[in-house]
Amino acid sequence: MGQGDDGSPGLGPMVVEDKKEKEPFKPIRKSAFMNYKKCPKKFWFSYFIHGEDYWNYNESTSKNEAAAKGDIFHAEVDGFYGQIDYELLYELTNTTKVIKYMRDKFSYSDTYDTEKTEMDEWFDWYCETEAKRFFFFKEKYPKSEFLEFFPPKETEWQVTMKDDIDRTGHIDRIDYLPNEKAYAIVEYKTGKSYDPKRPNNLSSLRAECGFYAIICNEMKLLDHPVHYWILYNPRLKIYHVERFPAATMRAVNNAYKGLVQKVKEAGDFPRKITPLCMWCDYRRECFHGLPGEPKKYIIPRTLGKTDDTERQED
Ligand code: SF4
Prior knowledge:
Elements: E1 28-29, H1 30-38, H2 40-49, H3 65-80, H4 86-91, H5 95-103, H6 118-140, H7 143-149, E2 154-161, E3 167-177, E4 182-188, H8 199-218, E5 226-233, E6 238-243, H9 246-264, H10 283-288
Parallel strand pairs: 1-3, 4-5
Antiparallel strand pairs: 2-3, 3-4, 5-6
The protein binds iron/sulfur cluster (SF4).
């Protein structure tokens, strides 16, 4: 404000300085990126309209039984590897004993003695799968290398890459594949829809893992490149390992650049109406308009049903 000669506030010309800095763009999480690929409008709601919930999305996933089971599975598996005594495990020679040793590390077995639940079966399958991996490494490598290669390289790993708009996310796990001298992004999925035998789902899973592989490789976060991705789906009992097709990496990078441009230019984020709208957090606003706005959308007459609820995760 201008000042009078006596130092009091005067009426002279005022220089109004706009000190309000432009808010930087929020980093784009992997799950937000996947939202964008599935439905640009869903990304728009989460990024621009419900920005206050953007970082808390994972905390509110237990809205139904399927999502709650997914959360429990993730939490249990995250704690699993930290409880294993690898020297002791290495000495076990019998498959049943290895599975039992692993199975006892999970706390989710309250009902196991009386009634085996679906989740008990998930953990049974997980331990059987890890036991196969255990014997593969044990038979192929000397003890010192087993101890180096069998445990995951990282679990629950937060990664961020500087970019026009930063990319970020949580990787469930990183494994080293010594034969290939490369790392693999490991994803845990518990929904029926995460089935790599279905082509659409396969390309979506590749893109999710590819998002992380690009961060690891471009930032050189590991001592070898990430060339593979691995899926564990205990509900479908699927353990899937695959090398990333080069086309996936190109497609993910191009889609990311397109998203960044749209965010910066406040471009159009159209709706993509599919049966998954039934489970979308933003369906009310999407079909009826934001509060205070005139209704501008048509409610689709039929949305059919999918066989599962998708868990949102990084
Ligand atoms: S309700 Fe459907 S169209 Fe609307 S934002 Fe959600 S997924 Fe997209």
